[in-house]
Write a structure and sequence with these properties.
This protein is of the alpha/beta class. It has 2 domains: 202 residues, Rossmann fold (3-Layer(aba) Sandwich), CATH 3.40.50.620; 140 residues, Hypothetical protein af1432. It contains 20 helices and 6 strands. It has a 6-stranded parallel β-sheet with strand order 3-2-1-4-5-6. Helix 12 packs across helix 17 and helix 18 packs antiparallel against helix 19. The radius of gyration is 28 Å and the shape is elongated. The relative contact order is 0.08. The structure holds fe (ii) ion (2 copies). The site of one fe (ii) ion has 5 residues, from helix 11.
C-alpha cells in the first residue's frame, strides 16, 4: 500500500524520520509512546534517502534500511513505512517531505513530526525551519529530566514557536544505531537491542561487516576464484568465516584489517590437497617434513599454505605469510596477526560447536594472549585424547603461553 492510501482516511498521524541504519527498540518504543499518548492513528516511519548531514558517512543501501524498517513495523497495525524519501532523487529535506505529505491528505488532518532532542538542538540548520510548524506539530521526545531550555533557545533561532511544540518524556533506552553497527562489526551480540527479525536480516545480508577497499577486493576476487577450484564448498565457507572473523579481531586489536582478511582467506589454501601431493609440494617448496608431519601430513598444510600463498597467490607480506604458516600449531611469541588468524580459525561461525568455544571467542576480543593460551591447551588436550602426535612447535607455543592461563 502506498503512503497516500495509508493516510487517505487518517485524521491524525505522526511521522518518524531517520536513517534507521538499523531501526531498533529505541525507535519503536518512542513511536509507540507518542502513538498512545497523543492518540495517533498511524505512525509513518520514513527512512531517509541521502540525508544531507550524513553525506560523508557510509550508510547502508536504501533498500536494506527500508526493508529493516518494514520488518520492524510489520507486527504493529499502527505502524507503517513510507518510501517517499527513499524514492526521491537528490537531497532529502524534512520540510520537503512534510510539504509533500501535507498535499496528500485533507486539510483537517493533523500531522505530528517526531524528533529526538539531539536533532531538535540542530533544527536551525535545517532547510527553511520556520516553515515546519505551518505543516505539522513538532513532537520533541526527550529522556525524563532533560533540560528543555537549550531546545527552546534553538527553536527561537530557527524561527519556531516552542510553545506550539509537544515535549514528551520517553523512558531512557540507551540504544543507538551506531553502537549496533559497531557491535556487529566486531562480532558482539545485538540481541535484545532490536527485533529478532531485524537482527536476522542484518546477519543474513551481512550488513555492517567489513567490506574491503577496491584494491583488496580485486585481489580477494582473484584469490577466491583460485580457492574455489581447490577447496571443498564446506572448506570455502570456513575460509570466508575465518577471513571475516579475523577482520573483526583486527579491528578490535588495532591490527591491519586488509592483511587479516587476506591471511584469513588463504590460511587453508593447501588444506584440501591430497596428502601425497601435499608431501610432494612440500619437497618442491622446501618445507621440511619432520617426524610429526611424516605421520600426519595434513598438518603440513599450514607450512605449505604459506609457500603457496607466496608462490601461487602472489602474497609477499611476511606478516600474512607467518599468520598462515603457524595457524594450526601456533608458535612461541606470535605476532598479532598470527594470533588473530589462529583464533579466528578456532571459532569462526561455521565451526562445529565444542565445549569452551564461546568462552574462547569472548576472551579473544578482550585478551589475545589469554585466548591463544586456552585454545592451545584445548587443542593439545584434544589431540592427546585422540592419541595424535603433538607438533614440537605446538609444545613450544604452549610452554610460552602457559603463563596466561
Ligand atoms: Fe587450517
Ligand atoms: Fe582453517
Amino acid at each position: 500500500m502506498n503512503t497516500l492510501d495509508t493516510l487517505k482516511n487518517c485524521k491524525k498521524f505522526a511521522i518518524m524520520g531517520g536513517t534507521f541504519d538499523p531501526i531498533h527498540y529505541g525507535h519503536l518504543v518512542t513511536a509507540e509512546t507518542v502513538c498512545r499518548e497523543l492518540d495517533i492513528e498511524k505512525v509513518l516511519f520514513i527512512p531517509s534517502g541521502r540525508p544531507p548531514h550524513k553525506q560523508n558517512i557510509n550508510i547502508s543501501d536504501n533498500e536494506h534500511r527500508y526493508l529493516m524498517t518494514a520488518i520492524a513495523a510489520e507486527d504493529n497495525p499502527r505502524f507503517t513505512v513510507s518510501r517517499i524519501e527513499i524514492d526521491r532523487p537528490g537531497m532529502t529535506y524534512t520540510v520537503d517531505t512534510l510539504g509533500a505529505l501535507r498535499k496528500m491528505c485533507p486539510k483537517s488532518c493533523e500531522i505530528y513530526f517526531i524528533t529526538g532532542a539531539d536533532a531538535a538542538l540542530m533544527i536551525s540548520s535545517w532547510k527553511t525551519p520556520s516553515k515546519l510548524q505551518t505543516l505539522c506539530k513538532i513532537v520533541v521526545v526527550t529522556r525524563p529530566g532533560y533540560d528543555k531550555n537549550s531546545i527552546a533557545a534553538e527553536f527561537e533561532r530557527a524561527g519556531l514557536d516552542v510553545e506550539k511544540a509537544v515535549f514528551m518524556d520517553v523512558p531512557a533506552l540507551d540504544i543507538s544505531s551506531t553502537d549496533i553497527r559497531n557491535r556487529v562489526s566486531i562480532g558482539k551480540s545485538i540481541k535484545y537491542l532490536l527485533p529478532p527479525n531485524v537482527e536476522n536480516y542484518i546477519y543474513k545480508n551481512r550488513l555492517y561487516v567489513y567490506t574491503p577497499d577496491k584494491k583488496t577486493a580485486e585481489k580477494a576476487e582473484v584469490i577466491v576464484k583460485k580457492l574455489k577450484k581447490t577447496l571443498s564448498s564446506r572448506r570455502f565457507i570456513h575460509t570466508k568465516g575465518v577471513a571475516e572473523e579475523s577482520v573483526k579481531l583486527a579491528r578490535v586489536h588495532g591490527a591491519d584489517e586488509k592483511k587479516a582478511y587476506l591471511a584469513g582467506l588463504l590460511h587453508d589454501c593447501a588444506k584440501d590437497i591430497p596428502n601425497k601431493e601435499k608431501l610432494e609440494l612440500c619437497k618442491k617448496y622446501g618445507v621440511e617434513i619432520d617426524k610429526v608431519l611424516a605421520e600426519q601430513p595434513d598438518l603440513a598444510h599450514q607450512f605449505l599454505g604459506a609457500e603457496l600463498a607466496r608462490a601461487v597467490f602472489g602474497i609477499a607480506d611476511k606478516e600474512i605469510l607467518d599468520a598462515i604458516r603457524y595457524h594450526t600449531t601456533g608458535r612461541p611469541d606470535m605476532g598479532v596477526l598470527e594470533k588473530i588468524v589462529y583464533l579466528a580459525d578456532f571459532f569462526e561461525p561455521s565451526r562445529r560447536y565444542y565445549d569452551g568455544r564461546d568462552e574462547i571467542k569472548n576472551l579473544a576480543y578482550k585478551d589475545l594472549d589469554k585466548a591463544v593460551a586456552f585454545s592451545l591447551k584445548h587443542t593439545i588436550d584434544f589431540n592427546v585424547k585422540k592419541s595424535r602426535l603433538i607438533h614440537p612447535l605446538g609444545k613450544k607455543a604452549m610452554d610460552f603461553y602457559e603463563e596466561f592461563l
